[in-house]
């Protein structure tokens, strides 16, 4: 997993300071090392010593910035979810209609999970290893992401573009479809992230589009 890809996935474009907030450079190195180790070995099999070695530090050096590897997992998960939420909000705001908004957010979310599949697997599938407090915080962010999609669906129903019987369940299904990309995607598959974006965006619209009047 490249450093550039992780930084881009965790926060807006720019240098390290703007990319991950006001975080010391050493802490950024530790987060990058943790992301690499978790993606390669999984959370349970990764030790603090593994992370420290990848970051060029002693285990004590990791603890200066993060109390445990669980805290590191939480930071990666929190930042990844916040980044995804902000991307969806921005895409929605830029779209002229609910149809284009849904195409953009589901397509973009799917592409994010293809381009950052290693981090996506950490953020989405290592969730069970978080503490109860940290799980609740991440669940709160997931609810915000769900609500972005649900609001677009409601807008589409209001304008007559969509026909959706159960908005929350449909939002969950569309997001789950996008998230699953991280599970199966690899650089050598036949589909590029751009192709996935286009296909999943179009599929999302077809699934909820209201039938044309006869």
TrEMBL record:
Domain HTH tetR-type, residue spans: 24-84
Domain of life of the native organism: Bacteria
PROSITE patterns: HTH_TETR_1, HTH_TETR_2
UniProt key word DNA-binding: yes
Alphabetic keyword roster: DNA-binding
Gene3D superfamilies: Tetracycline Repressor, domain 2
DNA-binding region(s) in UniProt: 47-66
InterPro entries per UniProt: DNA-bd_HTH_TetR-type_CS (IPR023772), Homeodomain-like_sf (IPR009057), HTH-type_TetR-like_transc_reg (IPR050109), HTH_TetR (IPR001647), KstR2_TetR_C (IPR041490), Tet_transcr_reg_TetR-rel_C_sf (IPR036271)
Cited Pfam families: TetR_C_24, TetR_N
Record PANTHER family: HTH-TYPE TRANSCRIPTIONAL REGULATOR RUTR, HTH-TYPE TRANSCRIPTIONAL REPRESSOR BDCR
Protein name: TetR/AcrR family transcriptional regulator
Organism whose genome encodes this protein: Fodinibacter luteus
């Amino acid at each position: 997993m490249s450093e550039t890809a992780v930084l881009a996935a965790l926060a807006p474009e720019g240098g390290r300071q703007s990319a991950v907030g006001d975080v010391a450079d050493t802490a950024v190195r530790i987060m990058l090392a943790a992301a690499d180790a978790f993606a390669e070995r999984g959370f349970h099999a990764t030790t603090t010593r593994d992370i420290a070695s990848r970051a060029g530090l002693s285990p004590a050096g990791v603890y200066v910035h993060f109390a445990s590897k669980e805290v590191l997992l939480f930071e990666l998960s929190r930042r990844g979810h916040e980044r995804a939420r902000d991307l969806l909000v921005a895409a929605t705001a830029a779209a002229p209609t609910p149809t284009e908004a849904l195409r953009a957010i589901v397509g973009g979310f799917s592409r994010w999970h293809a381009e950052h599949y290693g981090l996506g697997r950490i953020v989405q599938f290592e969730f069970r290893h978080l503490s109860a407090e940290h799980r609740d915080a991440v669940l709160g962010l997931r609810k915000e992401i769900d609500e972005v999609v649900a609001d677009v669906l409601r807008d589409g129903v209001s304008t007559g573009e969509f026909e959706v019987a159960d908005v929350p369940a449909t939002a969950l299904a569309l997001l789950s479809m996008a998230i699953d990309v991280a599970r199966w995607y690899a650089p050598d598959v036949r589909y590029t992230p751009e192709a996935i974006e286009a296909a999943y965006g179009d599929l999302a619209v077809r699934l909820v589009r209201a039938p044309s009047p006869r």
